[in-house]
Amino acid sequence: MAQNDTVKLIGSWSSPFALRARVALHLKSVKYEYLDEPDVLKSKSELLLKSNPIHKKVPVLIHGDVSICESLNIVQYVDEAWTSDPSILPSLPYDRAIARFWSLYVDDKIFASLDAVAGAKDDGERMAAAGKLMECLAILEDVFQKSSKGLGFFGGENIGFLDIACGTILGPVSVIEAFSGVKFLREETTPGLIQWAEKFRAHEAVKPYMPTVEEFVAFAKKKFNVE
Amino acid sequence: MSSDEVKLIGAWASPFVMRPRIALNLKSVPYEFLQETFGSKSELLLKSNPVHKKIPVLLHADKPVSESNIIVEYIDETWSSSGSSILPSHPYDRAMARFWAAYIDEKWFVSLRNILKAEGEEEKKAVLAQVEEGNALLEKAFNDCSNGKPFFNGDHIGYLDIAFGCFLGWLRVTELAAGHQLLDEAKTPSLSKWAERFCDDPAVKPVMPETTKLAEFAKKIFAKPRA
């Protein structure tokens, strides 16, 4: 498929993973048709089921007549298929390996911790899960300090692969903070991440697509039937 | 950087460790293999992969890279002018290779491992069925990716061949233990032939453990503790 074949993205307004794809496509100035799945957990469109028969999840990128699934895969694909600036992955092999490693950590460990806090059945479980989440965020803070070298993003001066991977935790973290009354991103423990979160949310490739904290919390309250 | 020392922390029986070993062989990169003792983790491992404490870890000029598939990409990018390309060149083929490699690790291998852990015939039957479903998907993926050529990657073994092929030893051990053929000419004709070619490849042969040795090792690690 050529660079100027049609591009469609199947996503969902609240999906942090769909956000990754949207940010990448914006960075590369790719024109695409956005197809929203309004209630993706309860009902999935024919097109989604056909394009992602194995996992049946958003996001799915449809480029010409092929589909690409899994958000981090899509981001790498966008970076490789549209070679104009800016580069999303870092240029050196070692830095790329590190970015990939920590993105995997976000998906495997941080999202698992978030799920554990959200799904905890009692206070004991919740406290243990919250402790694990704090640990993960402390590790991420350390990664941020080393990776950003004082320049503002994980990618340095500009937003990059690891910013896109990590940015997706912000919505779920803000919902958990609102529901539990506990701050997981704090000045005392994660000062770098607090500043980075603001910059990330405000970035022109992110702002149009990322729900605000208020919108996210309202959505979660409705979804989980909470006052 | 590429003339600096290369070490790999691993263990002979680990399919994940086999991945970077095959990749280093494909690129003709000499390296020191630091074998971990089963049941304990060396200081070097704990220092080089503090987050997961798992093998394999590649040390290149003392800089650690962890996570087997990430290490394979790193090797391909660092020694890009040596040997054949491990990742395919077209962005879509690369996305497919990464997608299937993740599927293999997250779904297929988990089911395979569960066969040996299954208690009772019912559970064993159910898990065997899961693996066979996965094999059918991978048979189709092979036919799609290889396009009539001998490997997933085309003429030479590549990322997806390595990601899947590394499990062939354990697959054979599981078949013996369960008394059930999983990869065979009737159910998975393309994959059966591919498996033979893969194991015969000069980059794979030296690092693929013998089935009998692996079966002995499996007995040891899956042995139920005596009362």
TrEMBL record, chain A:
Domain GST N-terminal, chain residue ranges per copy: 5-86
Keywords: Cytoplasm, Detoxification, Transferase
Intracellular or extracellular location(s): Cytoplasm, Cytosol
Annotated GO MF terms: glutathione transferase activity
The keyword Transferase is assigned to this record: yes
Catalytic activity of the protein: RX + glutathione = an S-substituted glutathione + a halide anion + H(+)
Record flagged with keyword Cytoplasm: yes
Domain GST C-terminal, residue spans: 92-224
Enzyme category, top tier: transferase
Cellular compartments per GO CC: cytosol
This enzyme's EC code(s): 2.5.1.18
Pfam short name (any one): GST_N
Physiological role: Is involved in the conjugation of reduced glutathione to a wide number of exogenous and endogenous hydrophobic electrophiles.
Family of the protein in this entry: Belongs to the GST superfamily. Tau family.
Protein name, UniProt field: Glutathione S-transferase
Organism the protein comes from: Arabis alpina (Alpine rock-cress)
TrEMBL record, chain B:
Record's subcellular location: Cytoplasm, Cytosol
InterPro entries: Glutathione-S-Trfase_C-like, Glutathione-S-Trfase_C_sf, Glutathione_S-Trfase, Glutathione_S-Trfase_N, GST_C, GST_C_Tau, Omega/Tau-like, Thioredoxin-like_sf
Family matches, as PROSITE patterns: GST_CTER, GST_NTER
Source organism, top-level taxon: Eukaryota
UniProt GO molecular function: glutathione transferase activity
Family matches, as Pfam families: GST_C (PF00043), GST_N (PF02798)
Catalytic activity: RX + glutathione = an S-substituted glutathione + a halide anion + H(+)
Record's GO cellular component terms: cytosol
Enzyme class: transferase
Domain GST C-terminal: 90-222
Domain GST N-terminal: start-end pairs: 4-83
Gene Ontology biological process terms, A to Z: glutathione metabolic process; toxin catabolic process
PANTHER family in the cross-refs: GLUTATHIONE S-TRANSFERASE U17, GLUTATHIONE S-TRANSFERASE, GST, SUPERFAMILY, GST DOMAIN CONTAINING
Family, per entry: Belongs to the GST superfamily. Tau family.
The protein, known as: glutathione transferase
